[in-house]
Write a structure and sequence with these properties.
This protein has 3 domains: 51 residues, no CATH class; 36 residues, no CATH class; 41 residues, no CATH class. It is 45% helix and 6% strand. It contains 5 helices and 2 strands, in the order βαβαααα. It has a two-stranded parallel ribbon. Strand 1, helix 1 and strand 2 form a beta-alpha-beta unit. The radius of gyration is 20 Å and the shape is elongated. It binds flavin-adenine dinucleotide. The site of flavin-adenine dinucleotide has 20 residues, from helix 1 and helix 2.
Length: 134
């Protein structure tokens, strides 16, 4: 972090939340390193500070799912690439349907996820208990 600002830069990114930081990172990765990121308070102090850190991969469209998959892959590799610990752990998740309608909706979601190339299983209550004992 720097207190003095250059007089000219190629790109100015305003806002040091996850989106601004990600833009600066990806620009640098593309070879555009003449970048200044301006944050009015401190890095990640905005909405990003509140995030639980969950990285869900199934999204409403194929493109959004591809983007979320890219994020999951990136987070897995970021520590090795940058030396910065991210604390990222990929555990997967279990969604529970409390009624038949929700179960139907989740099964449709599972089949969409499979067609997007995500690893998804439909579990019985017994299988859920085996994986996540009470
Ligand atoms: C309680 C909660 C939990 C969440 N959990 C998750 C989760 O588990 N997984 C998930 O994917 N998403 C989660 N989200 C959503 C996620 O946090 C946001 O989508 C994300 O942080 C938005 O990032 P951002 O960079 O767009 O915005 P911000 O993090 O708000 O960043 C904007 C930055 O811009 C700065 N700024 C604003 N104006 C200026 C200016 N004029 N000059 C300089 N700087 C400026 C602000 O200070 C701020 O730091 C959660 C959100 C909340 C509220």
């Amino acid at each position: 972090m720097s207190a003095s600002l250059p007089a000219r830069v190629e790109v100015v990114v305003i806002g040091g939340g996850i989106v601004g930081c990600s833009i600066a990172y990806h620009l640098a990765k593309l070879g555009i390193s003449d970048v200044v990121l301006l944050e009015r308070r401190s890095l990640t102090c905005g909405t990003t500070w509140h995030a639980a850190g969950l990285v869900g991969q199934l999204r409403a469209t194929r493109n959004l799912t591809e983007l979320a998959k890219y994020t999951a892959d990136l987070l897995r590799e970021l520590e090795a690439e940058t030396g910065q610990a991210t604390g990222y752990r990929q555990n997967g998740s279990i969604g529970v349907a409390l009624n038949a309608e929700r179960f139907e909706e989740m099964k449709r979601g599972a089949s969409m996820a499979r067609s997007f190339g995500l690893e998804v299983e439909v579990l019985s209550p017994r299988e859920v208990m085996d994986r996540y004992p009470p």
